[in-house]
Amino acid sequence: MSVVNLITAKKRLLIAGFGDVARRALPRLEPAFDCRRGSRAAGFDLDRPETLTGIEADAVLHCAPPPPTGESDPRTAHLLAALEKARILPTRMVYVSTSGVYGDCAGTTVDESRPVNPQTARANRRVDAERQLALWCTARGVHLVVLRAPGIYAADRLPVDRVRAGTPVLRDEDDVFTNHIHAEDLAAACARALEPDAPAGTYNASDDSRLKMGEWMDLVADHAAVPRPPRIARADAASRIRPELLSFMGESRRLDNTRLKRVLGLRLAYPTVLEGLKHARIAGADQPA
Fold it and tell me: Which of 82, 200, 209, 260 sits 20 to 30 Å CA-CA off 242?
């Protein structure tokens, strides 16, 4: 997992995990940090701690996911160990986490005061990362912002292939509430969280949509002008839906994004998926809902 070091005339920003959201955030960050992108040829790799020498930052945007296996996040541990050896410590840390840390909430509305209750190894790794960051930042007086993001979508991040393949969804009485955030809005939240006056804390980085998963897939199907997916009972799901996708159908929650808007002060460009889909160009990429 790569790290990109952005060196600025006034400040230094370290981006760990230079994926889609970080790339979208970069144009928003360059004016604030007067930065130029460093070269990846430096060879920084969060899976190889011996490569993380000489890393320094005034601020850190941590978008790197944990490894795909295990119960902990060694990538975050390697990053923090490298920062500990730096001549200067960052004053601000922003971590893009997942709303999966809440586990199944039986469709109830969830704000940031709800205790984490991870129910998959994937969510356990995210909880471990959050705990590592909280302990490290608290001990060193570093402002920490955690953005708990749900399903990220954009024009090229829609589950169109799954809809075209006819992958079923659960019937309404068995279905789960799912949450969404447009990739551009999540990128904007990252940039806002790095501003000096952004309050530290945890935020549900979600839009205002209140949809069940089947409703979301129907909207994607309509937008792509293909048949809506078939509905099946939960009892039949295990034999018709692959396990990694089925795991998303076992957790239901409705995220409360009040703090994101009122405390962090983020104004969503795409308040619901309806606005997001209006601006989406179907690209056929398949991503988890």
Answer: 209
